[in-house]
Amino acid sequence: MKHPAAAGVDAATGKATAVAKLTSGGGPGALTATAYYVTDTDLGLVDAIDTRTGRVLRTYDGGAEPNAVAINGTAMWVVDEATGRVLRFNLP
């Protein structure tokens, strides 16, 4: 059985640096210098995955159906498609 996954990619080489398995279907995400933020639409979560190790650093409640993620500095916005809300989170 195949599992959905998210990967950290080295921009200079184009090679995967880490791969993290997700518990269910993934969706669009956003990349920072240290983490990849991926939506888990089936569970209503956003996982912050360390791009070097592939470990989940933190999980955010993305609402009923997180559909898109945007990051600007120390803030993350998540679109909850089911409710039409945009959720804001402060990043560490």
Proportion of residues in helical segments: under 10%
Number of domains: 1
Order of helices and strands: EEEEEEEEE
Let me know the average pLDDT: 83
Secondary structure: number of strands: 9
- The CATH first-level class comes to Mainly Beta
- Computed CA radius of gyration, to the nearest angstrom: 13 Å
Shape: globular
Structural class: mainly beta
Explain the layout of strands and helices:
Blueprint: E1 5-9, E2 16-21, E3 26-31, E4 35-40, E5 45-50, E6 56-61, E7 66-72, E8 75-80, E9 85-90
Antiparallel strand pairs: 1-2, 3-4, 4-5, 5-6, 7-8, 8-9
Account of the 3D structure:
There is one protein chain. This protein has 92 residues and is an all-beta fold. The protein has one domain (5-90): Lipocalin (Beta Barrel), CATH 2.40.128. Helix content is 0%, strand content 59%. It has strands spanning 5-9, 16-21, 26-31, 35-40, 45-50, 56-61, 66-72, 75-80, 85-90. The strands form 3 sheets. It has a 4-stranded antiparallel beta sheet with strand order 3-4-5-6, with no helix packed on it. It has a 3-stranded antiparallel beta sheet with strand order 7-8-9, with no helix packed on it. The protein is globular and about 40 Å long.
Q: What are the defining features of this structure?
A:
globular; 92 residues; four-stranded antiparallel beta sheet; mainly beta; 0% helix; Lipocalin; single chain; three-stranded antiparallel beta sheet
Question: In a few lines, what is going on in this structure?
Answer:
This protein has 92 residues and is mostly beta strands. It has strands spanning 5-9, 16-21, 26-31, 35-40, 45-50, 56-61, 66-72, 75-80, 85-90. The strands form 3 sheets. A 4-stranded antiparallel β-sheet has the order 3-4-5-6, with no helix packed on it.
